[in-house]
From TrEMBL:
It comes from Asterophora parasitica. Residues 58-192 form the Isochorismatase-like domain. Pathway: Cofactor biosynthesis; nicotinate biosynthesis; nicotinate from nicotinamide: step 1/1. GO terms for biological process: pyridine nucleotide biosynthetic process. Keywords: Hydrolase, Metal-binding, Pyridine nucleotide biosynthesis. Pfam families: Isochorismatase (PF00857). Its EC number is 3.5.1.19. InterPro entries: Isochorismatase-like_dom, Isochorismatase-like_sf, Isochorismatase_Nicotinamidase. This is nicotinamidase. GO terms for molecular function: metal ion binding; nicotinamidase activity. Belongs to the isochorismatase family. SUPFAM superfamilies: Isochorismatase-like hydrolases.
Length: 216
């Protein structure tokens, strides 16, 4: 008997600021076409995440009057337990309800069934599309996957070494068979994220292999 296979596509942060704007990931526009080709495939559900920050977000260098790409330690919000985490301070990006937070032009966004927002709390950075790093709150993603009886998640988008990797690691934690589609991902600094994901049991594939898997 064939094992149950209910695949979801998760399109991470394919937004203007990460492709052309203030925090553009190198060569990011090259993945619009492969992401679109996957959005045309018969996934049980296609979900996009959007980074969606208030103007004074904790991850912005401007908020702390510090140089961009410098690092600080951040702590959980008041009354919560949790370890300090190192935070890279980014240029202002993906401010809610501004053009920088829109889906990048050319993305087949009409094929997306559900969009989940992240990073809306001014005091909490959220790389993963599932939840914050201290596991205090979840986005709408875990419930959407559960509602559709998803077994396998296929992750694409930006950036490979931050939000894609964090989303993939959480997908494993939530019990999903997790795939990252390498030719539909770009990283800020291409490097050790691939090995780290493989070590955690994440399967690295290319979009042609995904299309074969979906033509079951
Ligand atoms: Zn952000």
């Amino acid at each position: 008997m064939k094992a149950k296979f209910t695949p979801a596509l998760i399109v991470v942060d394919m937004q203007y600021d990460f492709v052309h704007g203030s925090l553009a990931v190198p060569d990011a526009s090259a993945i619009i076409q492969p992401v679109n080709s996957l959005l045309a495939c018969p996934f049980a559900i296609k979900i996009a995440s959007k980074d969606f920050h208030p103007p004074d977000h904790i991850s912005f260098a401007r908020t702390h009057n510090k140089p961009v790409f410098s690092k600080i330690n951040i702590h959980p919000p008041r009354y919560h337990e949790g370890r300090a985490l190192e935070q890279v301070l980014w240029p202002v990006h993906c401010v809610a309800n501004t053009p920088g937070a829109d889906f990048v032009e050319g993305l087949s966004h009409q094929a997306i069934n559900t969009t989940v927002l992240k990073g809306q709390d001014p005091g909490i950075e959220m790389y993963s599309a599932f939840r914050d790093p201290w596991h205090l709150a979840e986005t709408a993603l875990p419930a959407a996957l559960q509602r559709h009886g998803v077994t396998d998640v296929f992750i694409v988008g930006l950036a490979g070494d931050y939000c894609v990797m964090s989303t993939a690691l959480d997908a494993v934690d939530f019990g999903y068979k997790t795939w990252v589609v390498k030719d539909a991902v770009k990283s800020v600094h291409d490097g050790e994220e691939w090995d780290e994901m493989e070590r955690k049991g994440i399967r690295l594939v290319d979009s042609q292999e995904v299309k074969k898997l979906l033509s079951y």
